[in-house]
Amino acid sequence: MNRAMLATIHSGALLGIDAHAVQVEVNSGEHGDPKVFIVGLPDSAVKESVDRVRSALSNTGFKAPETRTTINLAPGDIRKEGPMYDLPIALGMLVATRQMGDEKLAGVLDQYLIAGELSLSGGVRPVRGGLALAMLARQTGKRGVILPRESADEAALVEDVEVIPVRSLDEAVRMLEGELALQALDPKKSPFCQPPDEAHAIDFSEVKGQHTVRRAVEIAVAGGHNLLLVGPPGSGKSMIAKRIPTIMPEPTLDEFLEILAVQSAAGVSLKDENRCFARPFRSPHHTISDVGLIGGGTNPGPGEISLAHHGVLFLDELPEFKRSTLEVLRQPLEDGDVTISRSAGKVTLPAAMMLVAAMNPCQQALSGWN
Q: Homologous superfamily of 204-369 in CATH?
């Protein structure tokens, strides 16, 4: 007869751009049908983790639980989203079924927050919110975080937190059991600390002529003013707007962490073009919805104005945007943040950006230019 055993792994849930502590409790060896049940407000992606974890365990040389197993994601009043709980669930199953662990392991697991998506082969895939998890670890007094390599790069920027990158479930198990050393990333080697690639870099100095416009842009940037560019097609409005971030002061580390936290929560920090120490430039299409611009969703997440935090939000062809879309910009422009209320909760997202808009003149004025 199997005796039930409880294992607890520490992880987090992403709400807005902040992470909240979540305990992944795995209880195996219960009486009943040999099934796995997940409770604690999981969404569909979390429920599907059972199949991914089973395949990952099998292809890594471990066995999935053969008894009734209950997985509780506590606290139960916070919605859990995404595949980030795959790795902690798998580790919890291994501890609960006594396939890994000794007296020291419980102490090691208690010191780290763990997150990661598993492939069917046992590999670990990146997840959103790596930076937020590292900041949560620092706030709660944890030693560090264990994350997929791609997500660990951004988390390494948080001071006083060990960031352990893993590439597979097997590597994570061997590290926790002491077969492999827990090697933390060096923050100085993070790709996010590097300047943009010179081959793809743009600069305001490339703007030739247009002395009046250049002077107006420089004054607007120096004073933190918003800007409207009006001119005929082909006069260089978009070209100039794209280069405005290059004459803005380099962000401080605190500002860059705020920028990266928003991008990490939205999942865009994993893209190569966003992996540099620079201010963001966002240029949404004029067909964007109100939610796409200010943020929202079932679990509120950042929109374009938050992704432009400490950078530039460029609205090209301004008259083509819907009036309701432009109206929602009023409060964020004044306050520097946006508060979104949904049934899942209320979050406040940063939105301190420089608004730059461009438009063509009316046909009568355009004919005068021609």
A: P-loop containing nucleotide triphosphate hydrolases (3.40.50.300)
